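Entry 14. Structure prediction run on the chain below.
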Amino acid sequence: MEENKEVDTEKIEKKPKSKFKEIMEWVYCIIIAVILAVLFRYYIGTPTMVKMVSMYPTLEQNDRLWLNRWSRTTKYKPQPGDIITFERPVKEDYTEEEIEQSNAIAKYEEKKGFDWFVYNFLEIGKVSYIKRVIAVPGDHVEIKEGKVYINGLEKKEDYLPAGLITDIPVGMNGFTDFYVPEDCVFAMGDNRNNSKDCREFGCVPYDKIESVVAFRIWPLNKFGNVE
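Output returned:
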C-alpha cells in the first residue's frame, strides 16, 4: 500500500494570470461601470449646465443644475410651476395655415432600435430645452393682451420681471387659444421675449419630458431649490 503523503501548501505556487486575462477583467469592469453610469443618468438623475437665456432671470447661463430623472422613471406628471427639460421637437416653426389650435401638440420623430438607444441613453446628437410648466392636460390656455389666461383667469406669475409681456414672437405664428391635449404639458421660458417654446411648436407629450429640475448646484451663493 502507498503511504499518505502530506502536501506542503506553502510550496505550491499559484499560476500567474495571463496578461490577456488581466486586461479582459479590466475591460469587463469598465464596461459594467459605463453601463451603470448610463442607467443612473437615464433613470435617476444627472447634472447639467444652462447654456441659453430662455429662463432668465430664474436661471442664468452657466448655472449648474441637478436634474431629477427619477420623475421620468416613476411616471411623475409635472405640475404648473415645475421647471422641466424635454427633447426638442423636429418642427419648431409653422406657417399660419399649419397652426391647428385644436391640435396643439409638438411634432417628434420616433426613433427605433439602436438609433433610439444612442439618441436617448447616450444622448448623442440630442438637444434639450429647459422651460417652466404653465398648464396641464385639459387646461384652456389663452395668450392675449400680453398676458396668459388659464381657464379664463389671468395666471399669476410672480417669477417674471414686472411688466414683462407674453406674446407670440414678432414674425412668428403660434398657439394662442387652445386646450392642452391629454398627456401633454404647455411650457414656456421665463424670458418670454427670448424663448422658443410651446407657443411656437405646441405642447410637449409626457414621454418627451426628460427630467424635472431638482436644485441648483452652482454658483454656490445660489445653491438650492429653483422656483
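The two ends are 88 Å apart (CA to CA).
Filed with the rest of this week's runs.
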